[in-house]
Amino acid sequence: MGSRPKSEAGGAVRRGPTAHYAKGMEARAQLPTIKDVARAAGVSVTTVSHVFNGTRPVAAETQARVKAAIDELGYYPSILARALKGERTGTIGMLATSSTNPFFAEVISGVEERCFELGYSLILCNTREDRQRMNAQLATMLQKRIDGLIVMTTNYDPSFFQDLRGLRGIHLVAIDTEDLDQVIVVNDDSEMGGALAANFLVERGFRRLGVLAGPHQHPRANRRLKGFAEALKQAGLALEESLIYRTDLTLGSGDAAMQRLLAQQKVPPEAIFCMNDLTAIGAMHAARQAGLEIPGDLSLIGYDDIEMASYCQPQLTTIRQPTMEIGRTAAQRLIALVQGEEETSEAVALPPQLVERQSVGHGPAWSDKPGKGEA
Amino acid sequence: MGSRPKSEAGGAVRRGPTAHYAKGMEARAQLPTIKDVARAAGVSVTTVSHVFNGTRPVAAETQARVKAAIDELGYYPSILARALKGERTGTIGMLATSSTNPFFAEVISGVEERCFELGYSLILCNTREDRQRMNAQLATMLQKRIDGLIVMTTNYDPSFFQDLRGLRGIHLVAIDTEDLDQVIVVNDDSEMGGALAANFLVERGFRRLGVLAGPHQHPRANRRLKGFAEALKQAGLALEESLIYRTDLTLGSGDAAMQRLLAQQKVPPEAIFCMNDLTAIGAMHAARQAGLEIPGDLSLIGYDDIEMASYCQPQLTTIRQPTMEIGRTAAQRLIALVQGEEETSEAVALPPQLVERQSVGHGPAWSDKPGKGEA
DNA sequence: AAGATGCCCCAAAACGTTTGCGCGGGAACC
DNA sequence: GGTTCCCGCGCAAACGTTTTGGGGCATCTT
To answer: B164: which chain A residues are within 8 Å (Cβ-Cβ)?
Structure first.
């Protein structure tokens, strides 16, 4: 409907569960072209094109003959040739720091899913935060004439986005980064998430709070921290600078940061806000090694709500991001942009949500095990 | 070197850290074409092509002029047009069940990495084991004229591979599946992995062993089980059918299977072999909920060695697959195939390895906590 | 019966590349 | 001084599509 009759007709050819694509191909080394179909059906390539795309009325009998030939040969039009004529390629690219981090993996999965639903496909590139690698990947994607690009990098580098904006040919959406003008950005509402964590801990009576922060240049982690600090201030509490420990948001760095914290603080904070679940799980590990009980001796709250948060010991109380939805939204907005549906380029901030499990106790003087606690 | 001077020249143009791709583009809506470059340099498109690809000697002075124009305009040749002339697209597709499962995520990451190193890019499709979805994704990738395809699906469906083999145009590599003739398959050596687990448990003195198996049609999990059972037999032990519980290899199903096991067995087995780490972690969770200590009351061994295995409580003893290497190998073999380097189409089985941590105790009558155990 | 009107269909151009062929001119050879 | 050779370069075809502009032919109108 509307302006895309082509994909409809394409869908028609795809119908049915049988594998058209495998039929009639046995003798050919190459995929069949529109010419082969035209020859087989005894019509011109023009007619084949119009039958396939439904772009002009064709006599029913001719149409039947052409469709038979298409099915017989297993013909699929080459997007390459189509795109040469100024059409889009139907492919979008994604630059992501890493696809193995569970949070990123889920965002990517959301992107892929929405792309599929809208008839697009996804070229995935892991940047590992290596600028040179990103440049090479970007160059390749430009050569492949992607219609748009989704960027999800952990370290905010303004100059990179500056360069990106110079590319007039391709549209851009960023995920999990600083707000940028002229670029659609999809995030969760990190200040709100930070505040959620702060308020929950304060209500439970915790006063001496630590933080496992992200890297200095990580825009979202910084905002979570900001929201956290501001909510504390509202509650009349101050965040102690000396109780903020940096991580790079991985399991290992959460472990390491917690070890540093426990080594440096004679008496550990009552509760710790971790910038993501991975660091929280790493921190749990370190705390256990040090002989601390969670939440008996120390409470811990995470961020993201990855699947593992429900299965670790103890189950992690955390701030849930609508992870999949962030990916889906980004894909949606990008494709709308590509298809020329003029949208506002305003940032989207999806609301996070607190998920209570077991890693936060009921207060600093409380213990889940009778006979223990009162630390 | 050898037969690919083009990519070399492409690399030359890409050199340097500055962002060529952003320069000179401000006034254009479209990316510049070879014609624009030719006009700017005052030469024919032929010459531009030869300069870019190094396919014919060009006078030094002309060459300099052309290169200047290329840099100035930020020109990148369209792979689309190039591929029309019978060249390859430099893109390979991957059908994977899900990219959020940590094991799959890491394999995919290996594929992506090796593709990048070899100058290819990766189109990722999550199939969710939905045959109809796979057909649609395959159709799209065929239209995009991918050079080859990597398939990593959990449920082995012979008819699908049958169809796939019908496609003469594109090359095929499968990961983590049954051996197939005419198709390169990359796996770990699952029988060996199963045997490794069995021998380790037997050496530790465990006799009554349970299994958290995979789905019935999962070829690798079945082989692990086979290797496990055979090694037990060698040791003079039999695997009790009633102690085999099926899972679908997810966290939740590991949890559920363990709950069933504990409900049905008056006295639980001494040790359990889980077909992957995810089910093992799920099982740990269920065991804890039931008040069982691991490894005090029950030993557990996993498979895969995902990152989380080192951070769960207790740390998981497991069989490590060379996960990343499986992905890299698959990409490598596929691209060799695409580039016509005739390789053997034999299956590859990379050897797994036992990683000892804390989830397996020192024997059925042993306990890690003094005063407990002797269960 | 002649002209007008639709209905079907085809030819050809265009998209951005690569590449075989060939052309002009200067240097080397006899 | 004429022939041969080589060097440096351009022309144009081809790849698989879409799309514009007609053209042939039957049917309807008068």
So the answer is: 22
